Amino acid sequence: MQRRSLLKALALLPALPLLGNAPLSLAQAIASSITPLDKPHDAWRKLLPPEAYAVLFEEDTEAPRSSPLNQEKRDGTFVCAACYLPLFASQDKYESGTGWPSFTKPIDGHMNTKRDFKLFFPRTEYHCARCGGHQGHVFDDGPKPRGERWCNNGVALRFIPEGEPLPELRS
């Protein structure tokens, strides 16, 4: 996370009691410092392979065990395949046995969540805080200490090995 974003979020903390009955968490305060992109879906469609576009902007799901990122074990950063916002650090990736890349936590403030009832029972869906691209779902059956499994579609991510520069954010 950029130091300036963290400082902006921390500067907001004293004002939180004035914002109403639902206080923001630190992660929500940090996420609010990420400027969402206002890019039409047709523009994303031109930039992305069809299967990535379907997952990111039509909330599709890739087939289990189809992503080469399942076997990715190197140090590095997983970024959004659309806008290149860093979403996960490699040390937070683990083998869940589900067939999709899974993580114990995202980079603070880089995800937004919402309830999803597409399978008739509630799930927590998460999206890139910058472009709004659908990444996957978070479940409460992950490893300790957090107990979270951030189950991600591989086509919604791009892996950048440690030592290589992160790509410039797309706008």
Describe the model.
- It is a single chain.
- With 171 residues, this protein is of the alpha+beta class.
- The protein has 2 domains: 33 residues, no CATH class; 121 residues, Peptide methionine sulfoxide reductase (Metal Binding Protein, Guanine Nucleotide Exchange Factor, Chain A).
- It is built from 4 helices and 9 strands; from the N terminus they run ααααβββββββββ.
- The strands form 2 sheets. A 6-stranded antiparallel beta sheet has the order 3-4-8-7-6-5. A 3-stranded antiparallel beta sheet has the order 2-1-9, with no helix packed on it.
- A hairpin with a 7-residue loop joins strand 3 and strand 4.
- The longest helix is centred in the first third of the chain and has 10 residues.
- The two termini are 18 Å apart.
SSE blueprint and pairings:
Elements: H1 3-12, H2 26-31, H3 41-47, H4 50-58, E1 76-80, E2 86-89, E3 93-94, E4 102-103, E5 111-116, E6 123-128, E7 134-139, E8 149-152, E9 157-161
Antiparallel strand pairs: 1-2, 1-9, 3-4, 4-8, 5-6, 6-7, 7-8
